[in-house]
Amino acid sequence: MASATSSSARHLFDESKKRLCARVGVNVNNLGSVARQVVRGSKSNEIMHQTLKNFTQVDVVSDYSHQNLQKMTLILQHVGYQYDVMQDSVNHLDYLKEQVTAMER
Predict the structure, then answer these.
(1) pTM of the model
(2) Where are the transmembrane segments (predicted)?
(3) 44 has pLDDT over 70
């Protein structure tokens, strides 16, 4: 009976050893798949990080451009005011020339 028990234990050990090897083989295949997914995931994470960084830079540049456009609009308005003042001065000069000419007569 001892040999029957030891042979069935050996058979059970061999069978569980085969199952373990089969599971390890499946897990190794799954590990390769998981490793590929991790590599893909890390690359897409890098791509997402770079995209976010680029978007942030574009957003900052857009804000600076908007601020510069507002400053240029203000400068244009001031140049318009200065032009109006100069135009008034030119008109005033014409009036003064007429007065001087009238005084010389």
Answers:
(1) 0.46
(2) none
(3) yes
